[in-house]
Every structure is written in structure tokens, then in C-alpha cells.
Amino acid sequence: MKKHNFSAGPCILPQSVLEKASEAVKNFNGLDLSLIEISHRSKPFVDVMERAQELALKHLNLQDKGYKALFLQGGASLEFLMVAYNLLEKKAAYLNTGTWSSKAIKEARLFGEIVEVASSKDQNFNYIPKNYAIPSDIDYFHCTSNNTIFGTQMQNFPEVSVPMVCDMSSDIFSRVLDFSKFDLIYAGAQKNMGPAGTTLVVVKEEILGKVSRTIPSMLDYKVHISKDSMFNTPAVFPVYVSMLTLDWLQELGGVANIEKHNTKKAEMMYGEIDRNPFFKGFVTNKEDRSKMNATFNLLDTSLEERFNTMCREAGINGLNGHRSVGGYRASMYNALPLESVKVLVDVMQTLEKQA
Ligand SMILES: *Cc1c(COP(=O)(O)O)cnc(C)c1O
């Protein structure tokens, strides 16, 4: 039996996707060849790349709006510096909502002046700062939509007159937003889309080509656009699995439908965290809670061993909190069934009854 996989990343993918992916490794599209042993420039793979790009734009409702979808390598972590390399001439503004934002700021500082418009570091990032001022003399504004480690999620995005860049690694394709507000979105595949090894970058072409520095080819979005994500050998397997996941999402009725499913899971999870006197949520501002990653603690830490054993026996995997937060983190990405949340809630209730 498949485990109830609450892993924060790499994380659960749809079982049907895993089955198709493993078949393609053995025999891709009935070609009697493996997906990973054919040329990335062959028609069957070019079709995969094109379909993945098309579906990514479609799910974000960004088709025919001047955006390009790229499947790059180097993870979201490389985007921290690629964004600055390509967009930062003098000054940019960043909202600091956690570890990943802090890392993005650190890299961007290598390229110019970075204004941190607000930070929730004072409370170990357990809330999303609000009512901050964003300077207007900046090249772009950068934020992180979902803070995977701390379990906070932005519900509102500021209105800015400069390009808005967003790290959506851990909530892309999980909810409907007006994605046209953003000029560059990036996401490592391994949270909600596919295996680690590729990063989706969706960029509005008109914001590129404005910095004066020379950009190395591999770090230049314009080069990747001109070569349709095939400047060098792309991560064929991760791109293929991402395409399968995006297809799966399409069959399920797209982002609007998966959002309903994600809301149900989050309501069930937070409902129990709030109700059960043995547990306490890490994020106290309810409107800042992430629907993807619910962080919580056991109030009596001496019960941890018992709770961990009960979880293990129920087939629950990946519930440990990040080392910088401790406690527990239930990651409820698109592919996690409601049933898995129900199993976790049952274990929490059993602990309450027995303790
Ligand atoms: C996991 C994660 C990253 C880092 O992604 P890599 O692909 O490992 O570089 C960056 N940002 C967010 C929000 C993440 O969740």
C-alpha cells in the first residue's frame, strides 16, 4: 500500500503519473526506446517540451499574453541569482518571508542594491508582513508566495508599477491567482509538478534585455527563449514527468478544481490543529496559513515519540518539521488525497483519547 506522503519536497506525485513515467523509461510511446535514451531534439521529445510549456501557460491563464515558459536546470536556487543577473540594474525590492526569500536576497545582493521592504524574521517567520511601502525607483519587486518551511502563504500581492517576480516553488498550480500581475514566476519542479531537476520559469518577454551587463549564455533568459529551452540538453525525464502532471491536472479540471480539493484538505487539517488541545499551530495569524504546508507542534513534547510511532504505524511519511522550526509539517500538495489528511487527523484524535 502506498504511504500517506506528507513530504515537503521532493513530494508526492499522482500515482498514475508515476506509472506512465516508469513505462516511458522502459518504452516511450511504443518506440521500443527509452525516453532517456533518445535525442532531446527528436520529434517525440520536442513534442513533450512543447506540450509541457503550453500546459504550464494554460494552467496559469497566461497564453497569448506575451509570456514564455522555460524548463531550466539548477533549481529555484539558481533563479535567485538568474533573476538578478537578468533584471537588476541598480536597485530591487524584496519581501522577506522566510529562508527562501532570505537566500534570494543574499544572491541578489551580489548584483546591486537590495531594499528589504519588510521581514517577518522577528517572529521566526510565522506571519506575512503587511502594509509595507515599496520604493518606486526599483528595477523589480520580488516575493515568495508560499513559505514551505514556515507554513505561511501570501493571500494578497501588492500593486506595483515595476515588474513583479515571484518564487512560487511550493504553491504553483495549487490555486487560482491573477497570474498576469506577475512578470516572472519561477518554481522548482519537485514541490508540485515533477521530479527535482527542472525549474519552470514563466517570464514576460518585454521585461528582458534591459540590463547593461553581459550575461553568460546559460544564465540568460533570452538565450533560453530563443532556443525554446533547448540551448543545451534539457532535463528530459523531469520535463516529461512535469508534462504528465500538468496533463493530470488538466484532466482534473485544472487549477480551479484542484484549489477546491486543496481547500478541503487544509480546512480538515487546520480544523483539527485548532480543535485538538494537544496540538498548536505554528502560524498564529489564520489568514497567513499555507494551504500547502501546515506547521504545528505537540504541546507536550514528551508525547512526540508516541505520536511518531502512531504515525509510522498508520503509514504516514514525511511529517517532520524543518530543522529551523521543529515540530511537524503536513505538506498537502496537489497530489495528496483527502484520505491521507483524514488518516493523520484520526491519529491526532487517537493520541488525544489515549493520552
Ligand atoms: C524548495 C524551495 C526552493 C529551493 O528549490 P531548489 O529547487 O532546491 O533550489 C526555493 N524556494 C521555495 C519556496 C522552495 O520551497
UniProtKB/TrEMBL annotation:
A molecular function (GO) held by this record is: O-phospho-L-serine:2-oxoglutarate aminotransferase activity
- Catalytic activity of the protein: 4-(phosphooxy)-L-threonine + 2-oxoglutarate = (R)-3-hydroxy-2-oxo-4-phosphooxybutanoate + L-glutamate; O-phospho-L-serine + 2-oxoglutarate = 3-phosphooxypyruvate + L-glutamate
Q: In which pathway does it act?
A: Amino-acid biosynthesis; L-serine biosynthesis; L-serine from 3-phospho-D-glycerate: step 2/3; Cofactor biosynthesis; pyridoxine 5'-phosphate biosynthesis; pyridoxine 5'-phosphate from D-erythrose 4-phosphate: step 3/5
* All residue ranges annotated as the Aminotransferase class V domain in the record: 5-343
Q: Transmembrane residues, as ranges?
A: none
Q: Binding residues for pyridoxal 5'-phosphate, per the UniProt record?
A: 76-77, 100, 148, 167, 190, 232-233
Which residues belong to the signal peptide in this entry? none
The UniProt note on the cofactor reads as follows: Binds 1 pyridoxal phosphate per subunit.
For this protein, the record's Gene3D superfamilies field holds: Aspartate Aminotransferase, domain 1, Type I PLP-dependent aspartate aminotransferase-like (Major domain)
Chief location of this protein within or outside the cell: cytoplasm
Task performed by this protein = Catalyzes the reversible conversion of 3-phosphohydroxypyruvate to phosphoserine and of 3-hydroxy-2-oxo-4-phosphonooxybutanoate to phosphohydroxythreonine.
Write the protein's name: Phosphoserine aminotransferase
